[in-house]
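Researcher: Good morning. I'm working through a list of sequences from a screen, and I'd like to move beyond sequence-only analysis. For each chain I'm collecting a predicted structure so we can compare shapes side by side. This is the next one on the list. No need for commentary yet; just the structure.
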Amino acid sequence: MAAPTASGGDIISDLPVLTRKDFVSNQEVRWCPGCGDYSILAQMQKMLPDLKVPREKIVFISGIGCSSRFPYYVESYGFHSIHGRALTLATGLKSARPDLSVFVVTGDGDGLSIGGNHLLHAMRRNIDLNVVLFNNRIYGLTKGQYSPTSEFGKVTKSSPYGTTEKPLNPIRVALAAGATFVARSIDRDTKHLEETLFKAAQHKGISFVEVYQNCNIFNDGAYAAFTDKEVRQDRMVYLESGKPVRFGKNMEHGIRLNGFTPEVVMNAASDDGLLVHDAATDNITLANILVGMDYPEFPVPVGIFRDVAAPTFDQLLQKQVDDAMAKGAGKFEDVLYSGETWTVS
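Model: Good morning. Structure tokens for this chain:
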């Protein structure tokens, strides 16, 4: 046995070479034609062999929603749970079996509405889980109601006069909850998505990846203004830790800070004065500034916002178990009759 991977799960030295085909199940993929979920599934299946983890050590857990059919389509262990509760099952599984690589697949409705509290607590505990949140800004499975990430004023079947709620920003939520790995990608940039999922899976601790995903039936084109290939380079900025924040077809534009306020620098001749991204800092101020850059005033940031090391919940829990066992075997009767006891006559 070699050392465990960052995502849990053991690398086996004599493991047969796995390919994407090994992670494709025999189940018919049943999403609407053209759905962005197909892209996310494909990039996940392409990435998984690179982890060098046996399939029997990989588990996918989901809640309810279009994205939650994911476990059926990956040839590994999986659990299709109930609405918003995927992270509770994942927490229990990872606590009992820290050797497993556990992925949680959720959506903006499943993960941020009924499951929002579980998501927050999993992040603050820093459980070694890989959370992938599909964000299409709509409820797709239940046919087009507004979700926690729908834009203010969005007209849907459940908001015929427009929503009166401000949307949640999943990245900002993750940063506030203390997630140790926070990233964003898009379904249409397959190379970036695959790389982001791989880096997230290697992280030791909770990893959270928001994926801008198009629902071509109930919210088609939600991100087209900046994700379409023809405009992407000018309207999105790809974050790279340690490098100046630049964008444009020729990386000719940049971002600088005026105090704590970001500013666009058009045709920045040099890197002098430009903001340098640092995903490894414990200070989340920079990441919050970046995630607050809203289109169309700013290019939309994608990439890794935060990637820091910290003790994980499952590691600390296992240490408590090991320490208790090291004291030797006890007797159940001693526990039962210790502490505050009384006799009822």
